[in-house]
Specification:
- By secondary structure, the chain is an alpha+beta fold.
- The chain has one domain.
- Helix content is 26%, strand content 26%.
- It has 3 helices and 5 strands.
- It has a 3-stranded antiparallel β-sheet with strand order 2-1-5, with helices on one face.
- The protein binds zinc ion.
- Zinc ion binds at residues 38, 40-41, 43, 59, 61-62, 64.
């Protein structure tokens, strides 16, 4: 199967880089949520669990399981502002 073109459009980064940068953020007390692009339908998915990274992601739209380690991912950072 050809991956959906959106997997190239979105700024997904290599797994190892993302994990490294996310760990630094978490150490600084920043909450991060993993994001990835569905390999099949191309929708952008965000994981519901803070500070957790998965190697496989199930799409909420089409149910397809994407190999996140292969396609890369990104994260969304939440800052607590007092
Ligand atoms: Zn999908």
């Amino acid at each position: 199967m050809q991956p959906h073109p959106n997997t190239k459009l979105h700024p997904n980064h290599p797994w190892d880089d993302v994990i490294k940068r996310a760990k630094e953020k978490i150490k600084d007390g920043i909450i991060v949520y993993q994001k990835f692009t569905c390999e099949k339908c191309g929708t952008r998915q965000t994981m519901p669990d803070p500070n957790k990274f998965y190697t496989l992601g199930d799409c909420e739209e089409c149910g397809h399981r994407t190999d996140i380690k292969k396609y890369g991912c990104n994260y969304m950072a939440h800052f607590a502002i007092d």
